[in-house]
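User: Can you predict the 3D structure for this chain?
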Amino acid sequence: MPMHIRTRFAPSPTGFIHLGNLRSALYPWAFARHNQGDFILRIEDTDLERSSQEAVDVIIEGMAWLGLDLDEGPIYQMQRIDRYREVVKQMVDAGLAYPCYMSEDELNKLRDQQMENKEKPRYNGLWRPEPGKTLPTVPQGVLPVIRFRNPIGGSVIWNDAVKGTIEISNDELDDLVIARPDGTPTYNFCVVVDDLDMKITHVIRGDDHVNNTPRQINIMKALGGQLPVYAHLPTVLNDLGEKMSKRNGAMSVRDYQKAGYLPEAILNYLARLGWSHGDAEVFTKEQFVGWFDLESLGRSPAQHNPEKLLWLNHQYIQNADPTALATLTKPFAHQLGIDTESGPDFTQVVTLLKDRANTLIEIAEAAKLFYLPAPSHSTEQIAANIPPAIVPALVDLIAAIKTAEHSKEAYGTAFKEVLAKHLIKMPALAMPVRYALFATTQTPAIDSVLVVLGKDEAIQRLSKVVL
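Assistant: Here is the predicted structure, written as structure tokens:
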């Protein structure tokens, strides 16, 4: 029977979720979907002081926005505390772990002495039971931590799906605390119990977890579990070459939503931050899932490129269905005070503007032009922007528009006929027309503008400056 793939994304809800975090969710999701497996969201919320429900909500919203659907979860570690305590007791009873009464002050003094001796700071095994060893007297009124009996000698070796073979000597690892004095379990221990209970087959996560992996492997082996495949993803750097983080100015996923980015563009961009499929730059979510494999993951850090993301967003806006795009843009238009129900058809406006826009906000801002009241030009403004010599051509253009079919092609023909009759070039006529219509000379193609604005409204506005 082939292995049933099960992956997980296991964030700590201690801050906002940025693009680097989301990439760590995207790859295990894609791997599960490619292999018809399961994708699980696990919330590692044992840090009670820093965890918050708001951060959990942002994680769930961000994943839903990108379309990273779940098969299980969210599963909260704090709801599994009894399970962790049960396993801790089993390990102590089996001699796999032991109580340690060394105080924090004693531990700090030990580490200071080791550093003074130019030794690696580490727990010295004082309370570790060994055959023939006499342990210190248990101090009165002191609650112990529980430590895992890490193997002595040998190495932890695993074949990382991204980094290749990694070997860490057990002599580099001391006996890890797996439960605090109050009985709450520690991160590296919870992760192992969760991965075993949830039958995780592939752990795909950031390479900041590489140093945790040998400890987790040793605990997993002690519990008799089958090791998952590990794939540690290179760091995502910001545009200054620093590790992406809130401290270094990373934007949250909510920021990108508010800035008018499309989720398809974000997903496409994230996919390329450490993975590639030939020369493909723009692809659908379905193509990405079909192509994804661990062998194509890169080993070098990926660098965030805001310009590339903006370019991708433009590609997706440019190729989006106009009706769907109009629906997505309306909330941004409403924020700008645009009443999309009065005035030109909003879908037509969006269709006209989308090829020049990088974000939904840019579309909304450009759309304002079509929903403002008709401009009221003073005599001085008309004289400054509409030369008297061009007025006869404007009069002829108004007449031509009146009789033309209401289409871009017909209006284009009307312009050409008037230009030919008056022996003038397009800018000489188009710029005054733009100013007459909107009190600006910056608009999309004027024949398309006339279609969106409407024949009657256009004639009314143009007539005001020539009569």
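The two ends are 84 Å apart (CA to CA). The CA atoms of residues 86 and 102 lie 23 Å apart.
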